[in-house]
Design goal:
Length: about 280
């Protein structure tokens, strides 16, 4: 089967002066305009294309890759707002619509928003939504302590960053547990710290324990070698400087350089460390 809003590999049925007609299976013929064809195509050839509906509601193909497909999240910029909603730039000539009832919050022209693309059942058109609750799991979270999970940064709150966990639940990474730059739409790994009785989920970005410290020690050693054996970040250095350079807490940094010192690899001073 072929699906609108996804990238598919389709076979060429016919080539004309206007373009190529592809076998879209249950979608019928899918038209690929001539200006989209970069290489010579013949009947029977296969080509990878993204499928959407054109202004006449006909299945159309493009070799361009949109910023997201149906079922995926992306940070998209609003190009225009009219009486039916906001039109967002998703990397194709035809913009994608975010209807007003799918906007949370109400979108403004020129601003960027994290959205999920979906296929509207009534019109069969690809649309965008920032109302994520309709896509989340209705099941109680069953995550385990320190389980590794995929995250998408969804926004900022008074207490921390709001994140989508496995695209199924919302969680929070508290500001005092963030040691790297985060931005809305960013995809990264994290770990479940706690699932509260009310269903709220606390998330951390660094797994505690000696494994993390050992990995950080390797980074410090590589940085020392790159800097000629001396690094102006020591035992008493500013936590913000440590966070900026190594994306970690001062506590973890001190554990890591302490381990390197015990191995006889470095000397530690108040404001610097150096290779032995």
């Amino acid at each position: 089967m072929s699906y609108l809003g996804t990238t598919q590999t389709l076979f060429v049925k016919e080539v004309s002066n206007e373009g190529a007609y592809l076998d879209g299976h249950d979608l019928g013929e899918v038209f690929l305009p001539k200006h989209e064809i970069k290489d010579e195509l013949e009947a029977g050839d296969s080509i990878s294309v993204f499928i959407f509906l054109d202004n006449a509601n006909l299945p159309t193909a493009t070799v361009k890759k949109p910023h997201a497909q149906v079922g995926e999240y992306a940070l998209l910029r609003v190009k225009e707002i009219n009486s039916i909603g906001a039109f967002l730039d998703w990397g194709l000539e035809k913009d994608v619509l975010a209807p007003f009832n799918e906007q949370k919050p109400r979108m403004q022209e020129g601003h960027s928003y994290l959205v999920r693309l979906y296929l509207d059942n009534a019109s069969q058109r690809i649309c965008a939504s920032s109302n994520f609750n309709r896509f989340l799991s209705k099941d109680e979270p069953q995550y385990t302590h320190l389980q590794e999970v995929d995250l998408i940064v969804a926004g900022k709150t008074d207490i921390g960053y709001k994140v989508l966990i496995e695209e199924s639940h919302f969680g929070v990474v508290f500001y005092n547990m963030v040691f790297k730059n985060l931005f809305v739409g960013q995809k990264l790994k994290g770990f479940i710290q706690k699932v509260r009785e009310d269903g709220k989920i606390d998330v951390i970005l660094e797994k505690p324990g000696m494994g993390k410290v050992s990995e950080l020690g390797d980074k410090i050693m590589q940085k020392l070698k790159n800097e000629g054996g001396i690094l102006a970040i020591g035992d008493k250095s500013d936590p913000e400087l440590i966070k900026k350079v190594f994306s970690t807490s001062k506590a973890n940094y001190k554990k890591a350089i302490g381990g390197l010192f015990k191995q006889g690899l470095i000397d530690i001073e108040a404001k610097s460390i150096r290779l032995k």
